[in-house]
Amino acid sequence: MARTSNSNGFRLASTTVRSFLVLTLILGIAYPLTVFGIGRIMLAQADGSIITNSQGKTTGSSLLAQEVTKPGFFYPRPSAAGDNGFDAMSSSATNLSPYSKDLRKAIADKRAEVAAREGVSPGDVPVDAVTSSGSGLDPHISSRYATLQTPRVARERGIDQHQVRQMIATATETNFTGNADGAPVNVVKLNQALSELK
C-alpha cells in the first residue's frame, strides 16, 4: 500500500514538473517571441505609428490628432481630451447628454465658427466638424469635411485646389462604417504632407 502511494505521488510530481516546463516553454518563451516577431514585421504599428518629417524628426503619431494653430492646414475634429483638448494623457469625450443645453450651445457655436472660417453656410458644416470623438483624439475627418476645407487650405498655401485634392485622396483610408459623409481622411498624415511642401 505504501509502495502504491509513493508511486502515485511520484507520478503526480513528475506530471506537475513536466506541465510546468512545457507551459514555461510555450507561454514564457515561444509566445513572447512570436508576438515580438510579429511586432518587428509590422514595425510602424508596433512602435506607435510614428510620423517623421523629411529630416527624420518625429512629428507625431498617425493615430493621434493634433491641434492646428497655423494657417494652411486642415482642422481635425474638436477635442474634449484634457483642459484645452488634444491631450493624449486625458483621452475622453465630453460626456454631455444629447439633450444637454451646454452641448447644444457648444455645437451651435462651433458650427458658426467653422462656417465663418470656411466661408460656407452653417447648414453645409458636417457633423464631424462640430462634435468630438469618443477619445477626443481621433485623427480622422470625413471626406466631406476635408472637401469643405480644401479652398481655404489652397488659398492660404497659395497652391492649386487640384493638388490639395490629390493629397486628400492619398490620406483617405478605407471606410468601414459606411459614413454618409464619405471615407475617413487621416488629417495628421494630410497635414504632414502639407508641411513637407516647399
From TrEMBL:
Primary location class: membrane
Domain of life: Bacteria
Mode of membrane association: Single-pass membrane protein
GO cellular component, one term: plasma membrane
Transmembrane segments: 20-43
Compartments, record wording: Cell membrane
UniProt entry keywords in alphabetical sequence: ATP-binding, Cell membrane, Ion transport, Membrane, Nucleotide-binding, Potassium, Potassium transport, Transmembrane, Transmembrane helix, Transport
GO molecular function annotation: ATP binding; P-type potassium transmembrane transporter activity
InterPro entries given in the database record: KdpC (IPR003820)
Assembly and binders: The system is composed of three essential subunits: KdpA, KdpB and KdpC.
Purpose of the protein: Part of the high-affinity ATP-driven potassium transport (or Kdp) system, which catalyzes the hydrolysis of ATP coupled with the electrogenic transport of potassium into the cytoplasm. This subunit acts as a catalytic chaperone that increases the ATP-binding affinity of the ATP-hydrolyzing subunit KdpB by the formation of a transient KdpB/KdpC/ATP ternary complex.
Family affiliation: Belongs to the KdpC family.
Protein name listed in UniProt: Potassium-transporting ATPase KdpC subunit
